[in-house]
Amino acid sequence: MKYINYTLLAGFLLSAVACKEDFLQRDPGVAITQDNVFADPALATRFADNTYNFLIDDYGRLSTLQNYKGTTGQFSDEAIFAETSTGHGIVTMNQGKFLDNFSTDVSAAYTRMYQGIRNANVVLANVDNVKWTAAENGPLIKAQQLYLRAFFYFELVKRYGGVIILDKALAQTDNFDLPRNTYDETVTFILKDLQDAEVILAAETWGTNYSPATDWGVGNGGRATVGSVRALRSRLLLMDASPLNNPSGDVTKWQKAADAARAIITSGRYALHPAYGTLLNQPTSPEYIMIKVRAPRSGNGGFLGDFVIPPSFGGAQGQLNPTQNHVDLYEMANGRPIADPTSGYKPQDPYTGRDPRFYANIIYNDQTWQARKVAMWVNNATTPVQFGVDYQPASNSFTRTRYYPRKLWPESVRGGTGGASAILNYIFFRYGEVLLNYAEALNEAQGPVADVYSSINQIRKRAGMPDLPTGLTKAQMRDRIQNERAVELAFEELRWWDILRWKKGVEIIPKTITGVDVERLSATSFKYTVIPMPAIYQRVFEEHMHRYPIPRNEIFKSNGILKQNPGW
Amino acid sequence: MQRSLLSLFLLLMLGAVAYGRDADTQELLQRPITINVEAVSMKTALRTLERLADVRIVYSPNTVPASRKVSLNLTNQRLSVALEMLLKPVGLSYQVLSGQILLTSQPTMPVAAPNTNDQANTNPAVAAPVADRMITGTVTDEKGEVLPGVTVVVKGLQRGATTNADGVYRVSVPENVNELVFSYVGYLMKTITIGNKTAVNAILQTDEKSLEEVVVVGYGTQKKSEQTAAISSIGGDEILKAPVTDVTNSLIGRVSGVFAQQISGRPGLNGANITIRGRASANSAALIIVDGVERLTFGDIDPNEIESISVLKDASSTALFGIKGANGVIIVTTKTGKTGKARVSYSGNVGRVDFTQVPEFLDAYPSAMLHNEGEENLIKYGLVPASFQKVFTAQDLQTYKEGTGDRLLYPNTNWFKAVTQPNWYRTQHNLNFTGGSKAIKYFVSLGYLFEDGGFKDFSTPSGYKTNPSYTRYNFRSNLDFNLTPSTTLSLRLGGRLEGRYSFQGNGGQGDLRQRFESGPEYLLTRMYSIPAWVLPFYPEYTNPKTPEDQRLDNTLNQIEDFGRAGVNTFNPYAVIKRNGYADYRNNAIESVFVLDQKLDRITKGLGFRATFGYDAYIAGTRAQGGAYTAYNVNRATKTLEVARNSFEDPLGGVSSQNNGYVKTNLQLALNYARSFGKHSVSGVAVAQRELRGADGVAAPFANEGVVLRATYNYNSKYFFEVNGAYNGSENYPKAERYGLFPAVSAGWTISEEKFLKGAKWIDYLKVRGSYGLIGFGNVTNTRFLYLDEYSNGGGTPGTSSNSVINNRVLFGTASTNVSYPVVWHSRSGNPDVTWEKSIKRNFGIEAAFLRNRMSVTADIFDENRYDILLARNNSALVVFGELLPQSNYGQNYNSGFEVEGSFKDAKGDFRYGISGQYTHAKNRIVKTDEPTNLPENQKNTGQSIGQFRGYKVLGYYQSLDEIAASPPSRVNGAVIPGDFKFADINGDGILDDQDRAPIGYADVPQNVFGIEPNFGYKGFTLSALFQGVTKVNSNVFFAGGNYYSAMLNRWTPENAQNATWPSIRPRGTAAPSYSTNDYLLQDASYLKLRNVEISYAVPAAFAKRLNMETIRVYLTGQNLFTWTKFVGLDPENNQGSAVAGSFFAGPNNAVPVSRTFNLGANIQF
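YS: structure for the whole thing
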């Protein structure tokens, strides 16, 4: 009986304990809510800074397998992606499968831009209600959000044409199945945001000497400035005037584009960096209008170690291989294209006497690199056949074209652990591009007038090239400008977009992609044979591909409201 | 009581290795007694003796004059003396049976009792007319264990006897009667013809369908005959038939409704994937309960400790588990002591293990020939420039063919054979003590297990072992104390120490333990893709003895040859030898305390039970990594060159990681069971709560609730049952943490009705059905989905690739920059989030025929799972700009049937039987997160979970003309003649991924079955389990860079008509034919001889001579033979987690399944 009593007593006690409240209250709680964020100017500033993270801001980014691999140059005739796995997102684009899930520049870019737009919209909806203190500058935060939102829409319009314009964040309960705005509406919306941003940026200063009208000063480089607003406007209007978006050849559009570029030139804020070869490797430069600020890069994995640098230089995979098609665009140092019989180009001595930018942009056989000769040759005289250490026929970790991109590989960076790091900037806008924009737009608007020559010759002069010959026709000038852009802006993520806006995809992209076969005849002599690249590296391009399709799943999700681009 | 408490104390102090006092009959009767009682009732005197001698005395009130006054004065006399003095005057006698003293009124025939020289051995007897002949014998069960208390009746007469503690009976039989009938609860009744024998031994077969059989159910036990739910159970003996290290594998093929497959052969990580009645949701893991308390697994319990495993399948049986029950429940019950003399039992076995099915790779010549042909294809069809350099010259191929080449330049290495062993060993030992008295029952078990791995043991410069292994020490002490006649305290204490060891392999993903758990598998998946001609292997330099061998081992055996092998190919031997090791140790203490209090004083049939579980786990992983110098071969100079950036690193520092948590579980229950005439009612009400800690700083898991069961039956004919739980989990918003999960069920025993009662053709017939709602809230990695939160800070920005959203932002310049923290919306909360729900229906029928020798149970079931958590990101347009929160959206339907049956009979000493079961389950996605207008062929809706999809093969492209005339292919890689021609499913004139459609079946089987015939003759038994699955596919096939015999019959222009494989492409080249398609999708069905057991019970007499009670020796085998069309690894390897198209097997199941031949003995002292 005693035991019974004890048991019951214990039982009741335990039951009493069991009734304690909130036994299931175990969640870690919420530290910050949206209300907190915009009640605290410091947190609001941080939320706003995150908007920068949504920009597309590096070269290698397209692969679903390794997020630092794959550049748009590999969509174009600039380079190939040595590895052929579909997951890298290049093969699918090369084959014209823009709708494939692996084509991340179509599918992921669309998502990322709308994520950025949402972040900007959330800030813009709240920015006027935050109780800013002297430590922050509300208007400047607002201007940056406007600029970034414009940038996101620019990335959309250059890919898809007109898109759904959202100027505030949707609620979960809202209808997301919205119709697209037109191309013109989208461009107008971007121009409006740029205008609003520019007005604030030009007027506001922050603290004693931080003025975004010039630069933000120490610790704030890389933020939006008046210059970056104007540079984006220049690029947008150039695209808007180009054949893709200006089928009637409306000259006023070209004039607007020329004016937009000229506004930057006449501001006197920017100048060309003296040495073309080190353009991407400067902490600061008068040529930089806006760059992505990023710490120096090493050759241990990542973009350099696992994408640019081959195993023979200590990297893992040298998969970004410039094409012979690209190499052939470099003129001789005398300013004549290699196709010109008087140029002095010798196919069996192809790397002598070229445009100095060739040597700055390309690594080729038998040049000296990192204190040794680059050996990308085959020696057919020996049995078994011998290969130079920098080329392996059976391995896609080595170059397929026998070229590597010097512009994206600072020589001080060795592959693997222990090598030096070096600055390799991603450039949003630089003055050189603005000069080329100006030359192109002005030539289209007014023909090859003096300003056209002077702009483009500034670029050539800096590179060490002679001036363009005088007396070119408008069409000849157009060709020279287009060639100049291909060479000057090589690997800077512009070539593909230029081809699309020129509407020259069908002409350029399906051209046979070539590399060079290098046969070693002796220690110092080689035989060079231009060879077509394997089929997997060849491209398909059709007229409708000048505009990206809206990602296929978005169309499937929509009840017929979201319309696909023609041809897709 | 003092003794009991003292014993309790001692038992706890000694780790419960001690065992009860009343070890055997002799000792029991010789216990010293000092007693001094005057004129007390006989009953009191007996109770006093009971207490003093710590024995149990049982008698029938009819035979013993309980109220008669007696006196007894003894000092330090034996118990037997005391008993005689008490009993003789009233004409009573006694016998000792199972550690109890049984009082009998009349002397029976004297019973031979070789071990008990007790004069008091009973002789009460029948008023026997004429004892024409005296028959004697021993009764044992199938395993040779003696059965005390078996009733032996002379057929046709009211005369008989029972067996004594040694299973021996003696009975007199008239001349005209020739049969004896043996019966015992839980065993089939057996009739034996006497003939002219004087010794008739009987072996009784267990009656698995016994109506008295008690089955463990949620929060209690139930008689099988009263069940209305779908429950299968399996006993410890069945479990022990399978020589497996992970006891989950014992369930394979033995329990209906259970889909269990062993997916790996890695020691210590080779448990079965178990789902119950198929899948109804992506997470289909069953709830596991051990001794009443939830546990994460039961795979590491020593199988010798297990009494039974119950599998609860329908709503009625699982509703009690409410929010956790919807995937079914597996209840494991460990053994407890049985009243009676102490028994010591040892079992030990040693097994020889090998792989069931290993991948077969082509030798160097055929694979080089295929590679060469692939390259020629590329050249021939212009997929490469004419100047393309092939890997092999004609001369090279000839050298390979002749096999005369220098190994360095012309290797021929079967890497699988190079690094694995043909066979290895496992061993398992268990020693247990069991017994009990009136006051204490105990079961104490010590187990040891060692399982080696299938890799060779190479000597390593750092001295670590390269073969993975698994070591386990199990300990269990299960004690039951009868504190008072109405109070029982039970303790279930289990502990184990596990060591899992392996070479490190190459990494894998995640934290140290996750890397350890996939390291060797990653190595294997890479290794499977190295053709024989790529890397040389010099076995003669492994385990080097001389410095020269050492040097050669460290160079020639470390060749990686990027140029030929390709990046990400490693020298497997070098990785094993030099990359280091990892060791994962797990310590677990799992304890359950149960206090049972009968409350008959309040009202008859009422009881109270408190259960408290306390588990503590500490696990640690320790690893040391190294690196080696890799070499390339310079083929021109035949020399080795150090691969750039590789370096020697013996072993780095020790990295370690510790995990651990504590779990508590409390249950307070009231039970009630009582009969009123023909009405029987019972009820259980439980208040339950559990708190399980989480690793690190994560919030603990908590749940609590109330559980209720009420049953009613009328005349054991009509059964009604209501089960329900009202419980909740910490994982949901405050207002919605609790849910009610009710289920009802009913049964009708038709055979009890007049019209069937006494029917000859059927012995038992019952129908039953259940219906109910159960929840499933145990979805991993989705905690606190209701919280809406912003985070502050952000990760450090990388230097490559696009900025990562929510990382810090850098401003300034590359060389002098400031890192700005960010704030972001880190969690989009859904304030309405709740658990998955399941409506389950079950209808079953149970029948027995042929005097209960044959039984059949059949069930049909279905399940409607809804409110499945899904983030609606695939169906919502991305312009929203943020990930949507998870919401209760998905719905699946699962249905099927299961049948199990058994038949048993005996002819004299020959026993035979067969049992089998078959389960079919198929599921269909009713609603899931996918775009509304997704084309029909791409929709998951309407398909099974895990349904394969791919291209449909129409045939081969026979020519370039045919390719030109066909829709252009944009499937991965360019098309050449001999490639598969795929169907343009959507008819858009282009072949691309939009043309993929459902093909084959899903990645888990629809049907699973097991058939187990068994035979016995005297002490011999033989049983075999055939088990198989059908309607299952696997997308694993040979695209991983290697060449296989299946490729030899490839399409070539000459072999176009008979080809069974597409044209060859060289490894590493995209080939459209290797995109998942219905031709290469593998049929992963199989039939296995899963288990065989041959055992022999040494005759009791012989055992006795060795001072042992029983000796049983056995030969068992697991996974002995496999019949399958599956090529590559074992078909079980490829279930569930195969990586599409790129690997030989999924990264978690690349170690082939193992097969075991096992020899063992079981001895009872």
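YS: worth flagging: The CA atoms of residues 439 and 452 of chain A lie 4 Å apart.
IM: good catch. Also DSSP finds 18 helices and twelve strands in chain A.
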